[in-house]
Each structure stands twice: as structure tokens, then as C-alpha cells.
């Protein structure tokens, strides 16, 4: 009398498979946008950084993550020896080298 009857949905509902796909479409579009705006550029930057570290050679002028400028004196597998002034050498991790400078930059400073 006060409670209405509850009926099951029919199998031929108009929403069906298309309705489920459209409900996930914003989520899928968000992941695609995140891939192209965040993940892909970061992977590209990491690949460029690795190529730069592999190409380090004696005589290159570099900047470290701490802001030190120096000329590469020796390169090993995990470490780089930098000459920061004449007669002063420091050893830093290879990953701390962030930028390769053009030749002659240190003399211009």
C-alpha cells in the first residue's frame, strides 16, 4: 500500500555497452593527456640527460647540480673529476652533472 513495487531492468536497455564506455571516456582521456603532457616529456628529458652523461669527455666544461662550474679532468664509470680552478680538483658523482657548457665559457667568466 505505501511501498511501491521494484522491478528489474530489462535486458534491452538503451544505455547498454555504449553507456559503460561513455562513463569511462573522461578517465581514459585524462590518462592520455597525462601521458602526453607529463610522462613522455620526462622520459625524453631523462634520455637526453643519459646521453649527455655518456658523452662526457676530458676537457668538457660543465655545471653541477650544486652550481659548481668546472672543466672535466677525468671521467670514470660513476664519478667525474672536475678542475674548478688551476690546481684544484674535486670528485663528484656523474649524475650531479646537469649541463654541458660551450667551450670557452669558463674563460669568459
Automatic annotation (TrEMBL):
Organism: Rugamonas fusca
Location in or out of the cell: Cell membrane
InterPro entries membership: Preprotein_translocase_YajC
Family recorded in the similarity comment: Belongs to the YajC family.
Membrane-spanning segments: 20-39
Record membrane topology: Single-pass membrane protein
A Pfam family hit: YajC
Any single Gene Ontology cellular-component annotation: plasma membrane
Name of the coding gene: yajC
One Gene Ontology term from the biological process aspect of the record: protein transport
Keywords tagged on the record: Cell membrane, Membrane, Protein transport, Translocation, Transmembrane, Transmembrane helix, Transport
Protein's name in the database: Sec translocon accessory complex subunit YajC
